[in-house]
Every structure is written in structure tokens, then in C-alpha cells.
Design goal:
This protein is α/β, with parallel strands linked by helices and 343 residues long. It has one domain: Rossmann fold. It is built from ten helices and nine strands. Helix 3 packs across helix 9 and helix 4 crosses helix 5. InterPro entries: AB_hydrolase_3, AB_hydrolase_fold, GDXG_lipolytic_enzyme.
């Protein structure tokens, strides 16, 4: 399936930025101009979900979190959600944080907590972002749940770099005797360095994309240096694809078809399966990396959200013998895609 035509205009704009820019500073300025001229959608909102902001204690100071509570029915599960952004970007307002959290609260009757962890840069490096996510998890599991819902199943999830932080937090809780997650929800995870290579056919199709829509090896290396401070002797909970993975909860992966980091998610699937962790994947096959950060109602975005919502419902009522159960255990499913990985 070709790259979703939704991206055509944005790809042309990125190609124009690259063709006319002469320095990194000029590229950054032109990208800011491009962002300012793009239509800003209204922030996600729903009369059926109450949204609130608070802070939770952490080892490096308070950690901002945003909560999403279903109004019409009691929450049947909870989720700690971690946005992406290459460890150095992203916030609680981006669609990958705000819209995803709200939609999962709405679709799965889940109490969702989105984490505004400290970003790498300006002297902040590993393990600070991970410590923030772990602190938010500890708060949710002890005092953060709505009154009377201490027995809710609690899932842990994130997107891209946020998926790495979520997976690393799951490993910490497994190893340190904390409450472990009942399920993991990981979108287009970045969990291995060096990143595995794309298959030849996808690499050929993506070769026509402008560099700003790709994760080149140099860009991936820059992400790792920004986060950890080096690219050698990496801690196993920084890029946790190298960590022992046995004993993790059932894991649900959403992957983007046209994504230089897709092989990391595919390898993670194989690794989890090899050590006996139940794992299912959904492939948004015409999409670029980061498609959950899109606001357009594309089928692949909706199906990705539905896949995660079903995983949250499954944590409450395990599926067996139903059509839903057959779909959940089928291994790999396909769908569509969203926005390019700029930044």
C-alpha cells in the first residue's frame, strides 16, 4: 500500500524547506514558519470526559500530569500514558498526548493519566525523564486512582520515545517489587540502538521522502546522545530492547508502515514472543511515524485508537472464544497512518 495521500502537502512543504535552506538555523526558522502557517485544530474536548491538571512528587521535583476521567460511567481500567518527541520534545498539549488520552478514556471507560516528564536537554539526561514517569506510575498506583477504584487494572503505555520510557518503567516495576502493569500499550516504539534496518521494499519506497520526514541514522544517534549523553555502553533501561523481557505483562503494539523505526517495534514483538510474553501488533500500513499525533479522522488513526481501547477493555474482561478474541490473538493487523517525524 502506498504512503497515505494525506501526507502529500506536508511532504511537499518539507521538501521545499530543505531545497531552500542553507544552514541548520535557517531550517529551524523555516520549520517554525511552516508550523505557524498550518491550520491549528481546536484542542480535543468531550462532554463525557473530565480533564484536570495536577502535579505529583518526583525525585527531581514535581511532575505535571493531566487526568482524564469518564463522566457517564465509572472507570473500569486505568492507564498511564507517555507522549513521544525523541526524548527532547513534546508536551501535554500535543495530540499524541491530549487527544490520545481523551479518546482512550472515552472509548474504553478508562481513567487516563498523561505524564509531562522532563525533556532531555539543558543539562537533563537519563535517568531523569524515566524517573519522572516512574514517579507518576507510583503515584497512580498508590493515591492517584479515583476514590473507590483501588482494584482497577492499570495499564502502562506510550508512543515512540514515550514507549521506550513506558517499557523501561515496566521493567523497573518488575525488578523492584512495585505494582506491575496489567498490560502494555506501545505505539511505534523506539527501543533499540542501533535501530534495525528497514526491509528493502519499504526502504526503496521511503527513499523519495525528504530527510525531515525520516529518521536518518545520524538523527537517531542524535536522539540517543541527547537522552543518554553517549551512544556506547547504554543502560538497558534507557533503550530497553536490550533488557531481559521475560515476565512483562501482555503487550499491544501499534506500528506505522512507513517508519524507519518500525523494525524496532517488529523486533520487540519477536523478542517478547520468544520469552513467552503475550504480544499482539496492529500495523497502520500506509502511515508515517507518529500517526497518533494527527488530528485528521483517518481510518488508520481511528483503528489504532480502537486497538488500544480494546486492549484496555481486555485487561478488565479477558476475551476468549469471541470474534474479538480471534482478532486480538491473530498477531499482526493492518491499517493506515499520519504525521512525519519532524524534529
Amino acid at each position: 500500500m502506498p504512503i497515505n495521500p494525506y501526507y502529500d502537502e506536508h511532504i511537499r512543504a518539507l521538501a521545499d524547506v530543505m531545497s531552500g535552506a542553507r544552514s541548520e538555523q535557517e531550517i529551524r526558522e523555516r520549520l517554525r514558519e511552516l508550523a505557524q502557517h498550518r491550520e491549528s485544530p481546536e484542542p480535543w474536548t468531550s462532554p463525557d470526559v473530565a480533564v484536570g491538571d495536577t502535579g505529583v512528587p518526583g525525585p527531581h521535583g514535581p511532575v505535571p500530569v493531566r487526568t482524564y476521567r469518564p463522566i457517564r460511567r465509572p472507570a473500569t481500567s486505568a492507564l498511564l500514558w507517555v507522549h513521544g518527541g525523541g526524548f527532547t520534545g513534546g508536551d501535554l498539549e500535543m495530540p499524541e498526548a491530549h487527544r490520545v488520552s481523551g479518546e482512550l478514556a472515552l472509548r474504553a471507560d478508562a481513567f487516563v493519566v498523561s505524564v509531562g516528564y522532563r525533556l532531555a536537554g539543558d543539562g537533563i539526561r537519563y535517568p531523569v525523564p524515566l524517573d519522572d514517569v516512574h514517579a507518576a506510575w507510583s503515584w497512580l498506583c498508590t493515591t492517584g486512582l479515583p476514590p473507590g477504584s483501588d482494584d482497577l487494572p492499570i495499564a502502562l503505555g506510550g508512543a515512540s520515545a514515550g514507549a521506550a520510557l513506558a517499557l523501561a518503567t515496566a521493567l523497573r516495576t518488575r525488578d523492584h517489587g512495585d505494582r506491575t502493569a496489567d498490560a502494555l500499550l506501545l505505539a511505534y516504539p523506539f527501543t533499540h540502538f542501533p535501530a534495525p534496518a528497514l526491509d528493502t521494499a519499504t526502504a526503496v519506497e521511503m527513499s523519495t521522502l525528504p530527510a525531515l520526514a525520516r529518521f536518518a541514522p545520524q538523527g537517531i544517534e542524535h536522539m540517543v546522545r541527547s537522552y543518554v549523553g553517549r551512544i556506547t555502553d547504554l543502560p538497558t533501561d534507557a533503550l530497553p530492547g536490550t533488557a531481559p523481557l521475560a515476565g512483562l505483562p501482555r503487550t499491544h503494539l501499534v506500528l506505522s508502515g512507513y517508519d524507519d523505526l518500525r523494525p524496532s517495534g517488529e523486533l520487540l514483538h519477536r523478542q517478547l514472543d520468544e520469552v513467552g510474553v503475550q504480544v499482539t501488533s496492529y500495523l497502520a500500513d500506509s502511515m508515517l511515524h507518529g500517526h497518533l499525533d494527527l488530528t485528521a479522522p483517518l481510518p488508520q488513526v481511528e483503528e489504532s485508537l480502537d486497538f488500544f481501547a480494546a486492549a484496555l477493555r481486555e485487561a478488565v474482561r479477558p476475551m476468549s472464544g469471541s470474534a474479538a478474541g480471534v482478532r486480538a490473538t491473530a498477531g499482526l493487523h493492518t491499517a493506515a497512518q499520519q504525521t512525519p517525524p519532524v524534529g
